[in-house]
Amino acid sequence: RDRGRERDRGRDRDRGGNRDKDGDYENHGGGTHTNAEHGCRAPLRTPNLKPLTWVLQNLYVRVIAKGKHYTQKGYVYDIVDRYHCTLRMDDQTMVEGITEDMLETIIPKQAGQDVMIVHGKYRGQIGRIHTRDAAKERCVLQIDTQVQSISFDNICAFVQR
Fold this sequence. Notes:
- The protein is 8% helix and 35% strand.
- The protein is mainly beta.
- The radius of gyration is 23 Å and the shape is globular.
- Pfam families: GPKOW_C.
- Residues 1-42 are annotated as: Disordered.
């Protein structure tokens, strides 16, 4: 009896998926789909990319991926899809196919600069730096009529276009 169960479990593992509530196997990518135009079966391509979580349009960012644009700055010109954005670099060149892990936020050094909040309750809102505390890695921002203390991790320089 026990050997039979172990054999069944082993067979489940070999199929590469777990059964759902109906007893069918879940598909975790790598399957096939029918191309309606040609009627052939082609493998599914599941991206091995993380969706954009903090990248928003008009953020001023630094490229940290090794390559031609390493350490150069630019702003997010367009969000192409869930995974990619397009940058307009300071030298006016356009760079496409940028993923979030290739970028880092920039925190303005001077008070009075505009920033966008990229995480938390105020995500997407624009604020102005009132004071900046590099030791504590926090900024006091004026957001509309409110004043909030926000971590450097949650803000990024913003470019008005």
